[in-house]
What we know:
Number of domains of chain A: 1
Oligomer: heterodimer
Largest interface: A-B, 92 and 95 residues
Number of strands of chain B: 0
Low-confidence stretches of chain A: 1-20
Structural class of chain B: mainly alpha
Largest sheet of chain A: 4 strands, mixed
CATH topology of chain B: Formate dehydrogenase/DMSO reductase fold
CATH class of chain A: Alpha Beta
Number of domains of chain B: 1
Low-confidence stretches of chain B: none
Helix content of chain B: over 70%
CATH class of chain B: Mainly Alpha
Amino acid sequence: MAKKSKSRLPEKSGDTISPEYNGDEVFDEKSYVLTPVDRKRAISLIGAAIGVGVLSTVVSRFIPNPPVPEGNATVRSIPPLQRGDMEGDVLIRMQNELRRAMARPMEERRWLMVIDTRKCVGCHACTVACIAENKLPPGVVYRPVITEQQGKYPRQVTRFFPRPCMQCDNPSCVSVCPVRATWKRPDGVVIVDYDKCIGCRYCLTACPYGARTSDFGNYYTEHTPEIQPYEKQPSHEYNKSWSREGHSSPVGNARKCHFCLHRLEQGLLPQCVSTCIGRANYFGDANDATSLVAEMARASNQVRLLEEKGTKPVVIYLV
Amino acid sequence: MIEKLKTSIECFRNESLINKIKILWLFLFIPGLLGFIIKFASGERLTGYGSYVPWGLWIAVYFHAVGISGGAFAVGVIGYLRGVRGLRENLTTTLLLSAVSLVTGLLAIWLDLGRPFRAYRVMVSPNFASMLDFNAWMYSIFLGLVALMLFLSIKKRAHGQVNDKTGWLVPLLLLGVVLSIAYPSQSGAFFGVVDAKPFWSSAILPVLFLTSAVTSGASALLVVHYYLQRESAALTSPDEEPFPYLRKIILAGIAVYFMGEFSEYSLALWSPISHIKEVILLVLFGRFWWVFWVIHVGGALVGFYLIFRSQTIHRLAFGALIIVTSFISTRLNILIPGQSIPELKGLKEAFTHSRLNFNYSPTMVEYLITMFVVAFGLALFHFSREFLKFYIAKQDGGQQ
């Protein structure tokens, strides 16, 4: 360690140290003593900076979400399904309940999903159907199926937990977005505005369920002679047409399950629900007490994933 | 072949420091430029990060550069006000180093964005509830302040006063010190607010980030002052200011950082039910054990020894260079392992794809871009200084 620091001044500027290094000023090396004016100005500046910081943070929490259509503009008149031969099927019942729900404005609906793990056989049909419906590229998945194994063979239990977006009531992914590109709609669905998202991926890290994936612009057939036309087809998420050609959004954006909002608009159940061969998924409006999903949500044998995180997930699992 | 290599090394050793830096810069810039072109042609297709580990090497570079910026400013300006020789005469260098490091860091994160040309939205459509946006605004305000301080400090040249004639330079510097301490701490808060990652959600993180920033910022300042003295052929001894001032801060910074890190790791390892033990074991003995033991611990030990014991200015500067480079491990060891353990067990196996993986390794493009970012920072620092010299000379000429 240095024995004693020598901080003597050069005899004149540029003497022991060249002017280029030392500048051409000759300073007093004493510690600068703040004058009352300095103090007053510094305190004002620092106080103003802290004030602006606190104010902007507080105000920011009260800024409403970007406007989404509400009221009569969201009411849909969907003709009833004529399938007399399948009257007892839960899908037909949920479809009719969906029609009823869509006849009310958005703010009066609250979409809910219940997954009965005792009925799920782990076929992954929902995962694949979701990929096909939303034209998901490689590495983007909205609904993987998690396998949980307990015990050891032969006393072993295997359960499957399909994992869509939990559409949390207290979503940790929303508040971290620096550009307000994601928010929770009045009907409970957390959505992403692909036109606003800058692709910082903060929301991906903030979601404890890993329910958000980023579109890195890959194609399944990219190392073949030709990228197949079916991969270039636009998706219809959020009721818009999204073509990924030419690095357009949603390439570079965060993507997630949205309960197939574009299908709901047409009176169709989310693709994962329609596809489930075990009828393990229940979907509908939680505000409709007579609906099947509301009935299932009242069951006592239910769990929600990572409840301790405080995100208040909406998706319920029956075990 | 070996003879040729030996001759080349000998030639390199005989070159002046400026030429050596130029050669090393070209070694960084040429492959870096190639990486930059590849990145813009291929987007993010050739990157190694994915959806489960969405932040990789570039984010570590960003936070390291931001740390250097804040640390260099705080240490340099406090030295300026305290009358530390070398720092008082070179306020513009401190300001430039801080601004250039910050801009370099911002380039790294800009390149990391999925839609980089929408970055302006952070300013026009802000959400201050997001730590990212809060930081972005803080950086912008800080850069504006640095520009103002540069202007005032150049204007007051040759007056021999610490404050300028208007009396605003010192108050602005004090505000700058507060901000330069705030934003590296906020980098820690940036991770700390992510409750989804238990390893990040720790109150000690902002303190560790600030300590790392001060240590690496002071090291960068020391390296820069060594370079400035070499450049003007006026080397002093390690006992002359600003080196004793800087070396004390660096040594204290290293000690405090490792104490903080030890307290966090030892608590988690001691506890039988710690929820971050798995991550810490990954840091210590996982695939990237060498980042912790070789770069982080090894780099800090060698750097500490050189800075503590050096009798020559060259070895002192080399020690500081080791610290300023190896301290990127303080970012990497928090950033990557924190993302590598899923909260939902079984998620990794649920859908197989290279982007849906919890094991992250940087790709060649990521390394090349990192080289580009470093080369950009060095070039920006050099040309900013040249521009300032030119500007000052022009002003002086005009006055005469």
